[in-house]
Amino acid sequence: MAEEAGAGAGAGATTEVAGEWRHESGYILTNDPERVDLEALHRFLSTEAYWSVDITKERVALAVKHSVPFSLLSPTGEFVGFCRLNTDHVTFTYLSDVYVDKRHRKRGLSKWFLDHILATDYVTNVRSVFLMTKSAQKLYAKFGFEVVENRCMVYRPGVAKDVGRYDWRLVEYI
Prior knowledge:
Aminopeptidase
């Protein structure tokens, strides 16, 4: 049974059906793990995402399996965006691997996408949401994210042993 989405989603802009949200233009956001297109996700993460260059498909599959994945699907059902949440459901949630395919940007989808993800219990029931990024910081700031200097540390025990090349530019801004 469909219900109108709550505040923040835009009045009448979306309809929520048990883990699935439909944008007025036909895009669908879903947290159904079966809707993740691992081929498309792996292609993006291993070739375009600065934080995971050369990651293997197996590692992508494991990351999806052990997190809460959200897929963005075009009106034709094409997989065009993604993010995942890792959480203990009490103190923190970590938002990662966020992207919208270049061909589908400049349509307000990133804002719509984040509106819904940040309104889920995975986010609203915890004390803090963490995000490590050097891109789209202005977008995230509109949602209340802030750069916190000198408070993040990274421990890398044997990181990416299966990767020939790994790009750690991610931690430059920390």
